[in-house]
Amino acid sequence: MATTQLDTVPEPKYWHLKTVLTDALDSEFSVGEILPNERELAARFGVARATLRQALEQLELEGRLQRRRGVGTTVAPPRMGVAVGPAQHTWPGEGDDAWQPVGCSDATPPAAVAALLETEPDALVHTVRRSRVTHGQPVAAELLYVPAGSVPDLSAIDVPAGPARARSVLRELQRLELTGQDRAVELGSARADDAKQLDRLPGAPVLVLTTRYFVGARTAAVAVATYRADTCRLTFGDSGGIEITHQGEGRQRRAS
């Protein structure tokens, strides 16, 4: 096999250092422990502080470290297990207490969502915002887009904006007979509003789970859930459902 240009590129110093630091985190430090300052770490591993910062930033992106103002850099807890399946025929909010309604407004959806809903690009749809918190930590933010045609009786319900109206939209949606759904997962960057809800910086890596809900041959609603990539890990089981698991103490634990 011919050698490609990439085959001749040496491993970056910060990437090798990241591997060394990972071994040190696993063997020498405990969750919540504060790491030595950058000068001490750079001297210990014999690298420049710029190289060290690159390695620490990568470990932070991967969820191994947390940088807290006024505290320093600490070892992060293991990724949390948060189930996002495997029920295949359930409307959002139906028998699911994990998500909490935050609010609801009528807004124009992103072009990609409008295409999935087969609505006009400038058409207003009911937009429900929900939040998911596990072990006291926000792990996901969701926007559920519901066209007016899917919940025609909602206009007769006099409910103010906010969590109460969000719950009304969910109740009306559950009156329909759900016939199926499909899901897609992709890596993305946190938008400003999602980042604020997830306690992350805008542009932080996230996992975006898009779900389409079908009634007959039409799309009745689309949910776009944004999960923190630094705390969540997606695995796909034999059943076709999707779960989030985490690695901790040398063994993999499945979400309940």
Explain the overall architecture.
There is one protein chain. The protein is of the alpha+beta class. The protein folds into two domains: 10-75, Orthogonal Bundle (Arc Repressor Mutant, subunit A); 82-253, Chorismate lyase. It contains six helices and twelve strands. The protein has helices at residues 13-28, 38-45, 49-61, 111-117, 163-173, 192-198, and strands at 65-68, 72-75, 82-83, 99-107, 125-134, 137-146, 180-189, 205-215, 218-228, 233-236, 242-248, 251-253. The chain has a six-stranded antiparallel sheet with strand order 4-5-6-9-8-7, with helices on both faces. Strands 3, 10, 11 and 12 form a four-stranded antiparallel sheet that branches. Strands 1-2 form a two-stranded antiparallel sheet. A hairpin with a 2-residue loop joins strand 11 (242-248) and strand 12 (251-253). The longest helix is centred in the N-terminal third of the chain and has 16 residues, at 13-28. It is elongated, with a radius of gyration of 22 Å. The termini are far apart. The model is unreliable at 1-6 and 238-256 (pLDDT under 50).
How many distinct folded domains?
Answer: 2
Instruction: Tell me the strand percentage band.
Output: 25-35%
Radius of gyration over alpha carbons? 22 Å
Estimate the global geometry from the Cα principal axes: elongated
How far the N terminus sits from the C terminus, by CA atoms, comes to 46 Å
Here the CATH topology of the largest domain equals Chorismate lyase
Q: How do the strands line up in the largest sheet?
A: 4-5-6-9-8-7
Name of the CATH first level of the largest domain: Alpha Beta
Order of helix and strand elements from N to C terminus: HHHEEEEHEEHEHEEEEE
Count of DSSP E strands?
12
| Helix percentage | 10-25%
